[in-house]
Amino acid sequence: MSIKENYQIIKNQLPSEVQLVAVSKTHPVSAIQEVYELGQRVFGENKVQELMEKYPLLPQDIQWHLIGHLQTNKVKYIAPFIDTIQSVDSERLLNEINKESRKNNRVIKVLLQVKIAAEESKFGLEISEAKALFLQYLEGKFPHVEITGLMGMATFTEDEQQVKKEFLTLKGVFDELNQLKTLKTLSMGMSDDFPVAIACGANSVRVGSAIFGRRDYSQ
Ligand SMILES: *Cc1c(COP(=O)(O)O)cnc(C)c1O
């Protein structure tokens, strides 16, 4: 199927209030342009270098989301233009984003990435760390960022109950923090599990291969 058909199929499955982040990592600028022309404006990349190569070649009204682990020494490259950093996984990183955001006279939107998967390898804050960081934010410690919500990735498994349990855990944390200060975004779900994520309360999904096709990491 073509990118266009894939995109329409995904869009048709999303309730109108659910934001789609089109994850374009490894895919060429031409493919991103094609999806842009279908009306999509929010795109996600997981590597700073790849984003820096693509960004100048594409329309300036794209809202770029960084969705992969971000090293503090690379924040300065994306701070002038990034719309949202979804992958805040340490206080140190949040401090650095706050600093670079101030330098650029901006307020960068961020999501706290919370570890919900059973797998060891996934980046993210423990739930207790995320809550503690959010409290510091409420006390005014990071005035140049706006924490707009939470992001999480479920375990890569066929076991839908496991995935559901993890998503519901994050929804619980979201509801709890949302009582302290209104949060906009609960980012959960990818190509394989976004319907489950939406059923569990996600209002933003990050979909890559179901739109752009399989990724080729060989080059
Ligand atoms: C690659 C990636 C996605 C998209 O994955 P697909 O399975 O291709 O939809 C979503 N979120 C993050 C954090 C990713 O790195």
Whole-number average pLDDT?
Answer: 96
Which sequence of SSEs, written as H and E, runs from N to C? HEHEHEHEHEHEHEHEH
Distance between the termini: 23 Å
Q: What is the assigned CATH homologous superfamily?
A: Alanine racemase
Which strand-content bin applies to the residues? Answer: 15-25%
Q: Give Rg in angstroms.
A: 17 Å
The helix/strand class is: alpha/beta
CATH level 3 topology: TIM Barrel
Q: What key attributes describe this structure?
A:
219 residues, alpha/beta, 40% helix, 18% strand, binds pyridoxal-5'-phosphate
Provide a descriptive summary of the structure in words.
The chain has a single domain, classed as Alanine racemase (TIM Barrel, Alpha-Beta Barrel). Helix content is 40%, strand content 18%. An eight-stranded parallel beta sheet has the order 7-6-5-4-3-2-1-8. Helix 6 packs parallel to helix 7. The two termini are 23 Å apart. Bound molecules: pyridoxal-5'-phosphate.
How would you sum up this structure in a few lines?
With 219 residues, the protein is of the alpha/beta class.
What's the structural blueprint in terms of helices and strands?
Layout: H1 3-13, E1 19-23, H2 29-37, E2 42-45, H3 48-54, E3 63-66, H4 75-78, E4 84-88, H5 91-103, E5 108-113, H6 127-138, E6 145-152, H7 160-180, E7 185-188, H8 194-199, E8 204-207, H9 209-212
Parallel strand pairs: 1-2, 1-8, 2-3, 3-4, 4-5, 5-6, 6-7
Pyridoxal-5'-phosphate is lined by residues 23, 25, 46, 67-68, 153, 190-192, 206-210.
Function: Pyridoxal 5'-phosphate (PLP)-binding protein, which is involved in PLP homeostasis.
Domain Alanine racemase N-terminal: 2-214
Keywords: Pyridoxal phosphate
